[in-house]
Predict the structure.
Amino acid sequence: MTSAAKTPASEPSGADPAEPTARQAAVLDAVLTLLQEKGGQLTMTAVARQASCSKETLYKWFGDRDGLLTAAVQWQASRVRAGSYDRQKLDASSLRDSLSDFAANWLSVISSATSIALNRVAIAHAASKQSNLGQIVLDNGRFAIGDRLKPVLEEGRAAGLLAFDDTEAAFRTFFGLAGRDVQIRLLLGDKLKLGKAEIARDAAAATDQFLTLYGRAAPAPATA
Amino acid sequence: MTSAAKTPASEPSGADPAEPTARQAAVLDAVLTLLQEKGGQLTMTAVARQASCSKETLYKWFGDRDGLLTAAVQWQASRVRAGSYDRQKLDASSLRDSLSDFAANWLSVISSATSIALNRVAIAHAASKQSNLGQIVLDNGRFAIGDRLKPVLEEGRAAGLLAFDDTEAAFRTFFGLAGRDVQIRLLLGDKLKLGKAEIARDAAAATDQFLTLYGRAAPAPATA
DNA sequence: AACGAGCCGTACCGTACGTTACGGTTCGGT
DNA sequence: ACCGAACCGTAACGTACGGTACGGCTCGTT
């Protein structure tokens, strides 16, 4: 973004990632791989070598270094979006399972090497540049899970299983109970092994705590 | 830390910050100021200009860029350490006040421009270099507040006001309830104004939730 | 007054890296 | 078979910045 306003290359220079070609996806995978292995010292030369492509191609496809980083973040985000958790039946048990699944999934994501690396570069970017990398990561992380979880919470409320006034506040409580200090510790380099067993246990514990705070035993129809 | 094992300058090259001179403290303040204003693009030249000193002096005092950053982090940490919360009387009301104070203080710290800037550089460092900046920030942030809060929790348990098995787990729950998504959002550049009123309200709410999960109404002497 | 330590300001050096340019190769279209 | 587009590999350029050297100034000491 140092001297933009050039010929916008093919297409991924704008804010719309559209769909990268298979070859471009391979390049972006190389970026993600290098990001995890080498950390912040990601150079265009290293990307070109890892992806077996020329730097000229990188600049033609992605404009500049920021464009490449942005495309990589969006590429990773596009593959994280998945499970839509189709709710029909909604009883106390299935609600608990849904919440626990959400917490476990979130813990898995934020403790993955890819997520840690991407959050680090986005945070480093937010420190100096004006680029929207941080916003992109937020939109596909914190806010995306909020958008997916809030409907579940509201269905739970409609079914009389949960009680709260502010959906956003309830979600943020759940977010805090599930994540606690995990993300900041990992971002700061703390060794913190989270195996599947720990994640499942912590997710269940967070769900229990959330239900203690917001749960209602049985459907309570109508108003007060 | 790039090529240590030189003549260790005066003294702040090791792990012991000891006590910086007034002049050195002014330099470190300049670092913190620049870190907030300019973000990650902190250059030695800019520090020298801001502090009205020569680069030669910076290198004599702090060894290299990492040494300067480390000293700045520890300098900031040394001034954050304060309130020891001397507990003698401990009833339900004072426990609630203590917890709420802790939460409010923590929210104030992590939402301050200085903390955000320091956490960003520490995270960026944790990404590439092997430096212990991230560990220093963790020790003076997350772990420091844990060491100060855990005794309060255990006194509360001894007084029959709280019930938990694992002090660490109880603290992490409190940490999550208080912090929720605040820190990650701020680090990623999200606009999130936290005034004194919001902090006080959120701290009180987190305390209420924590007491709902872990509180016991009255002293319950002896075992079951 | 003379001296030396410490420090400021600045010029300078070496390197890393983003970005560009260019020659050579592959490959689909005609 | 020929052409042009796309792309690979690499050399080259410009700049930013960490680190060093040095001349001059200030100030405390004798």
Q: What stands out?
A: Residues 48, 52-57, 60 of chain B lie near DNA strand C (CB under 10 Å from a C1'). Chain B touches chain A at residues 38-41, 117, 119-124, 126-129, 134-135, 137-138, 142, 172-173, 175-181, 183-185, 187-190, 209, 212-213 (CB under 8 Å). Residues 71 and 96 of chain B are 36 Å apart (CA to CA).
